[in-house]
Specification:
By secondary structure, this protein is an all-alpha fold. The chain has 8 helices and no strands.
């Protein structure tokens, strides 16, 4: 009897349904973005990464900055980073989308992504005392990084 109950409970944990469409699409988009990062790392980081200095230095958020609230979540720092994130997306996204449906899962995915961006910006805002001085310092470091590392030097 105990063997039968183990078999029943394990069959409830394993869902033999195919991977839902939105989860599959997210996996493909993330892998595609990572491949583009490998081909054009400077451009991808300059345009799609979430740069807190742009948001916190007192300037207005440009359209590029607005799309960074979503696009940053498709960038990954290494193949290991990508692999672990895609494993988690497959492992948790598949059953959640199967249970909730694509629309609810889509909402959940982007609300958590925007929430993580807001948390990232908030932590950067509260990082240290003397925030205005630190923001300006980080903004100048960010400009240096964009100018010399991302764009490849002085213009």
């Amino acid at each position: 009897a105990s063997r039968e109950s183990v078999r029943e409970s394990s069959s409830k944990l394993v869902d033999n349904k195919p991977m839902p469409a939105f989860t599959r699409t997210l996996l493909q988009l993330n892998i595609g973005a990572y491949l583009l990062q490998q081909l054009a790392p400077r451009g991808m980081m300059a345009w799609f990464a979430l740069w807190p200095g742009d948001w916190l230095a007192g300037g207005s958020a440009s359209l590029a900055s607005l799309w960074q609230l979503a696009s940053y979540s498709f960038l990954h720092g290494s193949l290991t980073h990508l692999g672990l994130n895609m494993f988690a997306l497959w492992m948790f996204g598949t059953p959640l989308e199967n249970r909730w449906g694509s629309q609810r899962f889509l909402l959940y995915y982007f609300v958590t992504g925007f929430g993580a961006a807001a948390l990232h910006l908030g932590v950067n805002c509260l990082y240290a005392p003397g925030i205005h001085r630190n923001i300006l310092l980080r903004q100048s470091q960010h400009q240096f990084y964009k100018q010399f590392v991302v764009r490849g030097g002085a213009e």
